[in-house]
UniProtKB/TrEMBL annotation:
It is found in: Mitochondrion matrix. Binds 1 AMP per subunit. The lineage of its organism: Eukaryota, Fungi, Dikarya, Ascomycota, Saccharomycotina. InterPro entries: ET-Flavoprotein_bsu_CS, ETF_a/b_N, ETF_b, ETF_beta_N, Rossmann-like_a/b/a_fold. GO terms for cellular component: mitochondrial matrix. Its main location: mitochondrion. Heterodimer of an alpha and a beta subunit. One of its GO terms (molecular function) is electron transfer activity. This is Probable electron transfer flavoprotein subunit beta. The keyword Chaperone does not apply. Belongs to the ETF beta-subunit/FixA family. The keyword Methyltransferase does not apply.
Length: 257
């Protein structure tokens, strides 16, 4: 990677904090979002961390790291966090309370990539709210760029990017030239925490605020409707058996064997 400078985009989604058990809303159309802690989607945090590590490992190679979030006004908080961790600049595409489906997100990201002349997009493999696992793939399709999904290792060598992916019983390594899309898996790295001085400094970093129409989208086009959201069935209490004979008899009684 001697001559091409990396201009990285890290899309970050604001989701209910991973440590919180979501509650289904009264109308069974989604989860309760009032008075719930929201954070940066964990996989997006890993994507950001990997971008920061590329910059630290290859001095002078990374030109810029830009974070973007498509979400409510409050998504500014996760952009400030991303900048406190090391992103240089950020953009919020404020869609208010609207839900935006992955294809629409990908179209907006494409527009940001083209406007800013970026050449590497590092995304999470999935957002833990909808578990769609679609955005990176759709963005690659829309841009016509190569994609390496579910990265467990990312390396830069000369003019190429090598991405290792965990597959059943082993690992697969792919290589591609820039521009490209990478989506990241859980074991790629452990994201850093933002230090207090960096949180203070991030307040001065640029946060651009756009509306979808600034990117050329007059309305949000959604094509899916949530019909019903249900809790998994409650587990029934177990039975204790004294010995193996009793266990076998019980399993036979339940027609399990
Ligand atoms: P998904 O395809 O929804 O599972 O999300 C995969 C990845 O796409 C996330 O980890 C983010 O990097 C990105 N992404 C999805 N939705 C958004 C959004 N609303 N704003 C910014 N990035 C997003």
């Amino acid at each position: 990677m001697s001559s091409t400078k990396l201009k990285i985009l890290v899309p970050v989604k604001r989701v209910i904090d991973y440590a919180i058990k979501p509650r289904i809303n009264k109308t069974h159309t989604g989860v309760e979002t009032k008075n719930v802690k929201f954070s940066i989607n964990p996989f997006c945090d890993i994507a950001l961390e990997e971008s920061l590590r590329l910059r630290e490992a290859h001095k002078g190679i990374v030109d810029s790291i830009h974070a973007v979030s498509i979400g409510p006004t409050k998504a500014q908080d996760i952009l400030r966090t991303a900048m406190a961790k090391g992103a240089d600049t950020s953009t919020l595409v404020d869609v208010g309370d609207e839900i935006v489906e992955p294809l629409q997100v990908a179209k907006m990201l494409k527009s940001v990539v083209e406007k800013q002349g970026l050449n590497l997009v590092v995304l999470g493999k999935q957002a833990i709210d909808d578990d769609a696992n679609q955005t990176g793939q759709m963005l690659a399709g829309l841009l016509g760029w190569p994609q390496a999904t579910n990265a467990s290792k990312v390396e830069l060598k000369d003019e190429e990017v090598f991405v290792t992916r965990e597959i059943d019983g082993g690992a697969e390594t792919l290589k591609a030239k820039l521009p490209m899309i990478i989506t990241v898996d859980l074991r790629l790295n452990e994201p850093r925490y933002a230090t207090l001085p960096n949180v203070m400094k991030a307040k001065k970093k640029p946060l651009e605020k756009l509306k979808p129409k600034d990117l050329g989208f007059e309305s949000i086009e959604n094509r899916l409707e949530v019909v019903k959201v249900e809790e998994p069935p409650a587990r029934q209490a177990g039975v204790k058996v004294e010995n193996v004979d009793e266990l076998v008899a019980k399993l036979k009684e339940l027609k399990a064997i």
